[in-house]
Amino acid sequence: MIPKKIINFIPDSLSENLDKNGLALIEFLDEFNLNILNDILSIWYNKYPEKAKEIILDSLGKYLEAEIKSNDSIKQKRIKIVNAVKRHKLRGTWENDIKIRIDSITGKSSSLVKNTTVFESDDSILISDNNIDNDFYNTLGTDGTNEFGIYLPEVINVINITPGIIVIDIGIADDDVFIIQNDDFILVSDNNIDNDFYNTLGTDGTNEFGIYLPGGEINSDVNILINKIKQELLDSVPAYFVIYLGYTNDDGNFISLGVI
Question: Among 80, 231, 64, 242, which Cα is nearest to 165's?
Fold first, then answer.
C-alpha cells in the first residue's frame, strides 16, 4: 500500500524538528507517491483509448496494428487505435471488410455468388412425355415445324456452395479476362445475308474479313489482380473457409480464377 502522507511514516523526533529542506523532501515524496498511485489506478482505463495514459498509446497501437506514425499527435493516435479496434471487430465480414478490400483493388463492385450456374431466363427444359401441350419443349434446335427449340447452356465450371465455401464475383467480365483482338468477330447461328462477313472462318477469297478464335489466354493483368486480392485477404479469411475468386461470364456461369 502506497502511503498517502509521508509525514505519518517518519520518526517523531525527525518530524518534530523539520527544517525547510525536510519539508521540501516530504512534499516531493507525497507528490511522487500520488503519481504512482494514479498510474496504478489508470491501468483500468488502458482498454479505453480515449482515456488511456499517453505513455502506452504507441505500444497499444503496435499491438492492434493501428499504423501509428512517430509524428502523429496524441489525438491522432487515439483515433487510430479506436478505428483499429473497429476493424478487428468487423474483420472477415463481407460488407465492412472483404468487399471493401476487393473493390479497392479492382475498382469494380464485387458480390457474393449464390449460384455458380445461372441459366438464361428463356431456357427450356427436356421432358420425358409426349404430351401435345409440351410439343415446343420436345424440339432440339429447329425441326421445320416451329421456330422454338431448346438452348443447352455450356456449363464450364460448377462449384457446390456449402457452409465453409464462399464464392466471390470480383466484378470483371469476359472482355477483361481474355486476350481478344480489337477486330475480332463472332460466330452466329443464322444464314442471314446481313451476317455474311461473320460466316467466314479466316479469309475465303471473297472478302478480307474473318473470324479470330481466341485460344483462351488469360490476360496477365488479371493474374496479377487475383494475386493482389489473395494477399490482401489472407489475414481476414478464416483458415477453415475456402474462398473462390472469379467472375460470372456471359452465359451466367461462374468461372474460378483463384482459390484461397
Answer: 242
Three cell numbers, residue 142: 429447329
- Residue 80 CB contacts under 8 Å (≥ 6 apart), including other chains: 61, 66, 67, 68, 72
Residues 220, 110 share a domain: yes
Domains contained in the chain, number: 3
Interacting residues of 85 by C-beta distance below 8 A, sequence separation 6+: 49, 64
Q: Are residues 229 and 139 located together in one domain of the fold?
A: no
Q: Is 214 in the same domain as 186?
A: yes
Joined together, the cell numbers standing for residue 4 give 498517502
Q: What is the mean pLDDT of residues 52-69?
A: 88
> Can you give the residue range of the structural domain that contains 43?
1-47
**CB-based burial label for 118 (10 Å; 0-12, 13-18, 19+):** middle
pLDDT digits (tens, 9 = 90+) for 63-76: 888 888 889 999 99
Q: Residue 112: which H helix or E strand, with range?
A: strand 111-112
Does this model's pTM top 0.85? My answer is no
Specify whether 122 is located in the same domain as 195: no
**C-beta separation of 150 from 140 below 8 A:** yes
Q: Which three cell numbers stand for residue 175?
A: 472482355
Which set of grid coordinates corresponds to residue 221?
A: 493483368
C-alpha cell at 40: 496504478
What one-letter code names the amino acid at 137? Y
Same domain, 214 and 250: yes
Task: Tell whether 173 is covered by a domain.
Answer: yes
